[in-house]
Amino acid sequence: MLLIYTEEITSRLEYIFDFIFNEILGINFEITENKNSFIENKNHQKINYSKKEFSNILFLYSKNLLFEKEIKNQNFKNFFFEKNGVFFNKSFFHFDIFAASFYLISRYEEYLPFEKDIHNRYSAKNSTAYKNNFLQKPIINIWANDFFEKLKIYFPNLKKKKIHFEYIFTIDVDNAYAYLNKNFFLVFGSFFKSFLKFDFNNNLQRFKTIFGFQKDKFDNFDYLENLRKKYNLKIIYFFLFGKYKKFDRNISIRNKTFQKLIKNLEKNNEIGIHPTYFSNEKKEILNEEILNLSKLIKKKITKSRQHYLKLEFPDTYQNLEKFGIKEDYTMGYADEIGFRASTSTAFYFYNLSKEKRSNLKIYSFAFMEVSLKNYLKYSPNFSKKKIYEMILYVKKYGGTFISLWHNESLSDKYEWKNWRNVLKETIKFINKK
């Protein structure tokens, strides 16, 4: 076991030590602020994490972040020691891994003022990870493993847990059907809009689907179920289950076919709520949607992912936790791929406003197919290359690789031609030994 001395045990420090030592590395540790007993202790392997070194004890210089209580502008590079700096030769590791990791995983920078996009979201291009070219790497996992290898030099008998890799396939159902199960006014309105745009092909597809000549292009649930069986996939479906509005255009929650679809999928998969666009601002809407979906499947809803990936710190997570959500899968960007919190390991949300760890567990997704195709303009083949690179990182350093798809992108027709192949080849790549 490691015994770690620090000048003050804070909530931030306990949180990030537990994440790195326990969740990632699987190393037992104990923290103490009693300097004398720490120095005199002969029974443990010891690390001094403070600003003053002790003779013959492994020393890691601590930056201020974990001992502060306010939220203020930070220079991320300050967590790293200069090559010729005063602390470089004294510290056994070349930077303060704990302060740097906490800054990233807590999403510290998202509590500070920033320029929002059209949906009031934080853009990937604002992030430290994007600016420093490590967004597509689970950098905290990489650092933690490097840290362990350095520790092994001093403590050869130290052991960590085996690298664990898991894959979770998630589907956001914003709109279960493109043409079917819509009321007359919606069908007529959509027809008229397409007519005004001279989009005669869309109206042709609409008529063919409504009159039973072809399958609805968004109805790819049989295909997904076949994939699940063939590859033994763990799938989570996040259903938009609220009232029809500008950004929320799913089937009516009272529609029997829609209800039957959810119930059927629930038999072999997990079901989560996809809170509607405006539920982020109105807590009562969020609560109503969770309760309605729970009532339908006769099971408590404990998983969620925000529609449009709308995430505001700390309000969004506080609201979700208040209404019984235990796991959230929103942590990712719309405009980029990669690891928004810089880790592939699930973690508990740390509320900087309250300076405490919550009981809400956060699962980061690595990519969304809409990001690859619509935001980044990548081809299916180039997208596979980028996805494979991230998978290899997670396989090497551990964690959970999570992909985000939509049922409507898997038709393998029209604008989504060849994207089924991206999904299929990704799953095959994951299953390679």
Index terms:
TIM Barrel, single chain, 433 residues, 2 domains, elongated, 14 helices, 5-stranded parallel β-sheet, alpha/beta
Please outline what is shown here.
By secondary structure, the chain is α/β, with parallel strands linked by helices. The protein folds into 2 domains: 2-154, no CATH class; 165-178 and 216-431, Glycoside hydrolase/deacetylase (TIM Barrel, Alpha-Beta Barrel).
Q: Could you give the topology of this structure?
A:
Elements (H helix, E strand, L loop, with lengths): L1 E4 L5 H15 L3 E4 L2 H6 L4 E6 L7 E4 L35 H9 L22 H4 L7 H16 L10 E9 L10 H13 L3 H11 L10 H11 L3 E5 L16 H11 L3 E4 L9 H15 L5 E2 L10 H8 L4 E2 L18 E5 L4 E7 L4 E2 H7 L4 H18 L1 E8 L12 H13 L2
Parallel strand pairs: 1-2, 1-3, 3-4, 5-6, 5-13, 6-7, 8-9, 9-11, 12-13
Antiparallel strand pairs: 10-11
Range of strand content: 5-15%
What is the CATH level 1 assignment of the largest domain? Answer: Alpha Beta
List the helices and strands in order. Answer: EHEHEEHHHEHHHEHEHEHEEEEHHEH
Specify the overall morphology: elongated
How much helix is in the residues? 25-40%
CA(first)-CA(last) distance: 33 Å
Identify the strand order in the major beta sheet. Answer: 7-6-5-13-12
